[in-house]
Design a protein that fits this description.
This protein has about 725 residues and is mainly beta. Helices cover about 5% and strands about 40% of the residues. The chain contains 2 helices and 60 strands. It starts with a helix and ends with a strand.
């Protein structure tokens, strides 16, 4: 077993054993004046028991422990800025009572390098910020050290504190067990030491700042950290935020574990090795007109499980009126990031303020998976995910993710959508490999909450240096995919994909469609290889114009039992089908699949295919028709192979021979249920589009029961020859 783990376990066990034997005592060590035990249970600690240097008041204790119903009150002159206490006796401190300060605005520093535990009855009543640490020394701006172990080398100074210093690789732990640790609004609460565990504890500083930093090696941590370089420490310790529901008088009580929410929102900074949240909450929400300040996390592993939440939301708690503050940003840097069982990272808004931005940078992997049932039926569940949505008039935030491997599965999601007039935010993903499985989705759409107008959908940009895989459906039948839809008056957003390989299968989906008045978005895919197996790429619209689909393929494009559609079902004349442009695949295979840009009352869209090898099965469809409008245009080059069984296994040369034979015979096969037509434009007619780069344009138009007859439903009079 790992020796470091054993050492930490031993320290924790010793700490617990010693706490069980500790007598209630506050004992001065005599290094700064008087020595001996103070009378309790209400311990009075005046300035005369320590040393004052300028705005600093120093105290030194041999032991410092408070049991339930006990208190320690620090007092002194009003010109004191910082009360600085150390415990030097080698025993951990167990605090289950009240620590109070009567000095206005004075910050408190409490050091015990042997460990600190706050019990279920611990509380604070201090006038300024509160910093607790198991550091070996406190360094001041002028370089002076106030040492918690080697007291002979300590000096006192008038300079303000600057950093906590650790001299060994086994800093003692800090534990908060069921405590309510609260500091005044706008102040700072810092917990800096070895392993940190918050179990059923509640740390709160309204509109303030909470710092949690755990180290497992020597180095210095700033009093108010904002970014600690990994180079300063060999290892970081663990931060565990665990909430176990407690039943009191038949009522199950749970606590939000870390909270800086307020009218303006506070700031949370956490750094450690493993940062684990199990049914734990972390809030930095803005509840009024002030802007949120957000959350910053640096970790080796960040794990959120069992409905854990990290939020920097913006919502108005006091009234139904819209506030004006923006939600805070959430920034996470880690080796691994894992969210499971309905856990979420969110920076949403339901006011006129903007949702926050979420930036996730992982050196190795990000995994988002699963859900948690929260109601009586299977439709009431929380999805694990990353959210920066807007439910108000403010815009959604942006989600930016960079990692080698991003895996989203089992209904996990990333969303920046809108259901009000605020515009949805954008999503930018940069990975080596992206996998969306079992109902996972990435969504930046525009939905409709009521009959009011809605904002536009956001843009989704995915750049993968290796591959993208989209497959399957999850609970409730939800399909895996990328979505940037319009469901109201807003427009759908754009989806842009850049990758060597994109594979969609088993109901995989890419959709920038519209079910409302807003136009569908556009989809642009730039890949070497695109494979669809029982999958769909669509910008279909029901009440508006269809969006455009651009496929830039450098190697192969393969569709099997799949559909690419930019169809418009709108009953408005101006709402046409979108266009589908397919450029440069070395080989394009269409097997029992459909390309559709149909219009209904408006015109059909255009389909332009530029390839030298086009292989088509007889049960495939290419449809640019309009039910009542003008048909769209088709530019499809030869050679084309039509109606060959197991055609994918035949050599390309053989396919070309079949295509030439079909063109010489100028006829196609008709059956009772399926009528196919092979249409070729004359060589001497002018090009009908600047995109028509090929000598020949070949159209495949099988008439299935759900297909419109292109010749009988269109006023299209473009010049072409139909060969019987």
């Amino acid at each position: 077993m790992n020796t470091t783990f054993l050492k930490r376990l031993s320290v924790s066990i010793i700490l617990l054993l010693m706490i069980s034997m500790i007598r209630a005592e506050v004992v001065l060590d005599g290094t700064l004046g008087t020595a001996g035990a103070l009378p309790g249970p209400d311990y009075l600690i005046g300035a005369d028991l320590g040393k004052q240097y300028g705005g600093n008041l120093f105290h030194s204790f041999q032991n410092f422990n408070l049991q339930n119903l006990e208190s320690a009150t620090f007092s002194g002159p009003v010109n004191i800025n910082s009360i600085i206490s150390r415990v030097t006796g080698g025993n951990p401190s167990y605090i289950d009572g009240l620590i109070r300060s009567t000095i206005p605005d004075a910050d408190m520093y409490f050091l015990n390098s042997s460990g600190v535990m706050f019990g279920p009855n611990a509380s604070l009543d201090v006038q300024g910020s509160f910093h607790v640490s198991t550091a070996d020394y406190l360094r001041f701006v002028d370089g002076i050290h106030f040492d918690a172990n080697n007291t002979a080398n300590s000096l006192l100074t008038v300079a303000p504190p600057e950093a906590f210093g650790f001299l060994n690789n086994e800093p003692a732990p800090i534990s908060i067990q069921g405590s309510l640790i609260e500091v005044l609004e706008g102040k700072i609460l810092s917990i800096i030491g070895g392993d940190i565990k918050i179990q059923n504890g509640y740390l709160t500083v309204p509109n303030g700042q909470i710092n949690l930093v755990s180290t497992a090696s020597h180095g210095e941590i700033p009093v108010v950290p904002n970014k600690i370089s990994n180079n300063n420490f060999e290892r970081f310790g663990s931060v565990k935020i665990v909430d176990i529901p407690v039943t009191v008088n038949n009522y199950q009580r749970r606590k939000a574990n870390v909270d800086v929410s307020g009218a303006g929102g506070g700031n949370i900074y956490i750094q450690g090795g493993q940062i684990i949240m199990d049914n734990g909450y972390m809030f930095a929400d803005s509840l009024g007109s002030g802007n949120g300040r957000g959350i910053t996390i640096h970790a080796t592993d960040l794990v959120l499980a069992n409905r854990s939440r990290i939020t920097a939301d913006n919502f108005n708690q006091a009234s139904d009126e819209y506030g004006s503050g923006n939600a805070g940003d959430i920034d996470v840097i880690a080796d691994h990031i894992t969210l499971t069982e309905g856990s979420q990272i969110a920076a949403n808004t339901n006011t006129s303020g903007k949702a926050g931005n979420i930036n996730l940078f992982s050196r190795k992997s990000i995994e988002i998976s699963g859900y948690l049932f929260v109601g009586p039926d299977r439709f009431n569940f929380l999805k694990s995910g990353i959210y920066s949505n807007t439910r108000g008039i403010g815009d959604g935030g942006e989600v930016r993710i960079k990692t080698p491997s991003l895996i989203i599965s089992n209904n996990g999601s990333i969303r920046t959508d809108t259901i009000n007039i605020g515009h949805a935010g954008n999503i930018a993903i940069q990975v080596d490999t992206l996998r969306l499985n079992s109902g996972a989705n990435i969504d930046s759409g525009s939905g409709q909450q009521t009959s009011v107008e809605t904002g536009d959908g956001g843009k989704i940009m995915v750049e993968a240096s290796k591959a993208i895989f989209i497959s399957g459906h999850g609970i409730g039948g939800e399909r895996s995919g990328l979505y940037s839809n319009a469901f109201g008056t807003g427009k759908g957003g754009a989806i842009n994909i850049l990758s060597p390989t994109l594979i969609l299968q088993n109901n995989g989906f890419i959709q920038a469609g519209s079910l409302g008045e807003g136009n569908a978005g556009n989809i642009s895919i730039n890949v070497d290889e695109l494979n669809l197996h029982n999958a769909e790429i669509t910008t279909q619209s029901s009440e508006s114009a269809g969006g455009n689909i651009y496929l830039q393929i450098y190697n192969s494009l393969y569709l099997s039992d799949s559909i690419i559609t930019a169809e418009s079902l709108s009953d408005s004349l101006q709402d046409t089908g979108g266009n589908i442009t397919i450029s440069n695949p070395a080989i394009f295979t269409l097997n029992n699949s459909r390309l559709i840009t149909r219009g209904y009352l408006g015109d059909g869209g255009n389909i332009n295919i530029n390839t030298n090898n086009f292989i088509v099965s007889s049960n495939s469809m290419i449809d640019v028709s309009s039910k009542f409008g003008v048909n769209g245009q088709r530019w499809i080059p030869e050679p084309t192979v039509l109606g060959i069984e197991n055609f994918t296994e035949l050599p390309i040369e053989f396919m070309a021979d079949i295509a030439r034979e079909l063109s010489f015979n100028r006829c196609t096969l008709s059956t009772g249920e399926l009528v196919s037509s092979f249409i070729i434009t004359a060589r001497d007619i002018p090009k009908t589009s600047p995109y028509d780069l090929q000598t020949h344009s070949i159209l495949l138009n099988p008439l299935a029961p759900n297909a419109y007859d292109l010749d009988s439903t269109s006023d299209d009079s473009d010049e072409r020859d139909e060969i019987p």
